[in-house]
Automatic annotation (TrEMBL):
Top-rank taxon: Bacteria
UniProt-recorded name of the protein: Heme-degrading monooxygenase HmoA
Native source species: Kribbella sandramycini
InterPro entries xrefs: ABM_dom, Dimeric_a/b-barrel
Boundaries of every ABM domain copy: 6-67
Length: 94
């Protein structure tokens, strides 16, 4: 089963372009540093909120990624553009 990470967060309007600019580097860092990383989609929602949908091969891969946090420059830059966390959930695709 594929594990899905659903993270909803707020970005101040003046940081939205920075978030988007950092996205490619974040994904490149994930691809090289995060075992089990499959895919990610970023959705812009109303009221300065965003939803990041990230697919992992296993729940263990997702847990290991969370422990690493913003350990590489591209990931840290993306995280720095986020103002606040709204929700973080984990699910599976059967």
């Amino acid at each position: 089963m594929t594990t899905v990470e659903l993270t909803r967060f707020r970005v101040r309007p003046e940081q939205a372009e920075e978030l988007l600019a950092a996205r490619a580097d974040m994904l490149a860092d994930f691809a090289t540093d995060r075992a089990g990383f499959r895919n990610a989609r970023l959705v812009r929602l109303p009221n300065d909120e965003w939803l990041d949908i990230v697919e992992w091969e296993t729940a263990e891969d997702f847990a290991a990624s969370r422990e690493k946090g913003g350990n590489l420059p591209g990931i840290a830059r993306f995280f720095a553009a986020i103002d606040s966390l709204v929700t973080a959930e984990e699910g599976t695709i059967d």
